[in-house]
Amino acid sequence: MQNLSIGCRYNVVSLKQVFLFSRIGFMHIQSDICIIGDGAIGKVAALGFAQAGLKVSLLSPSRVGASVAAAGPQAWDARVYAVNHVARNLLSGVKVWEALDASRVAAVDAMVVKGDTASVLAFDAYGARVGALAWIVEDRNLNQALDAALKFASNVRMVNGRALSMQANETAASVQLDNGDTLSAELLVGADGGQSWVRTQCEIDFDYRPYGQRAIVSNFSCEKPHRGVAHQWFSPSEGIIALLPLPGNQVSLVWSAPDALADILSQESLTQLAARLSILAAEPLGSLVPLQPEMVRSFPLALIRPHAITAPRVALIGDAAHVVHPLAGHGMNLGFADVAGLIKTVIERGADHDCGDARMLSRYARSRKEDILLMQLATDGLARLFGTEFEPLRIARNLGLNLVNRLPVLKRRLIGHALGKP
Fold this sequence. Notes:
The chain is an alpha+beta fold. The protein is built from 13 helices and 19 strands.
């Protein structure tokens, strides 16, 4: 039999499996959009497409998510996101932002970035003429609100199972599940993370470069009020340390530490980690105390740049389309912008084209190219620049911070980009 898949490969199901499937009569689920991956990006995409009147299937490997973590409802989630204005508008549009537990969301009113000398770069909401630069939201808080919204989304069908194979042809695309069910749709959306199965099935090559760092994340109470200020320190020897405001006198740590230092930090107690941070943050925040000794996480950091974010009847969003260094806190925002861009492109496709139309997918890829490239260049460039102790570069980077801090026009451009404005 001729293989009709275009651009995407698929695993061959054995004759025995085909025979069993045909005898037992498994379900064939048809939709306009099939989303693979049920993280926050996939869930928001499902809600957005459903709101546009499209029929959506959302494939989940398991319905037990991060939103029901064993730490308990009162524990502060170690993983948080700095949500910018574009992301907030998207979440508000799908009726999720207002459903968040507002008592657990903190506005970022200002940000202070320090180099390895006296160099400083400071931003504030007043200077940007906005109410807040960003909002710090816990992963669990966000996913609980998304799950609640999905329960009332009549156009979204939640499907449990693991994808075994996929194929795409001129008229439709489909995914075969391990339980024998088949999902068919005009468009498959890969929202399945940095190690994307969908991307692999489509044979999309990518560049991968590890940073030799691991992100250490946890939460602390601080002696002095943070006043809504996010603090970030760049150090060639210790990496990039960020303390983000949480409600009350509490902060969330994201420490991008070199692997050797990360090994040491992982072996120390959180009390020792707090003592290290207190030395650095003594002036603005005072001493730090761990909020939850059991809640500390770490994960390796790498740059992942796929050579394409589309294939025939396939679109990638979120980490499946790009993984950037977390130093700017915009990895999730970049994914939300993917969702907004893809939904807009699908809605504007015209009556003569289906959701997987090749020209529509080309428009989506073009619309996201500049934003993704700029974020990749900015985060990768800063990570490299502040990761070297080469003296001329060390002097240049610190002079650069001070220079930008004194140039209002350039500073406003940087703030606008961070907010998600053109």
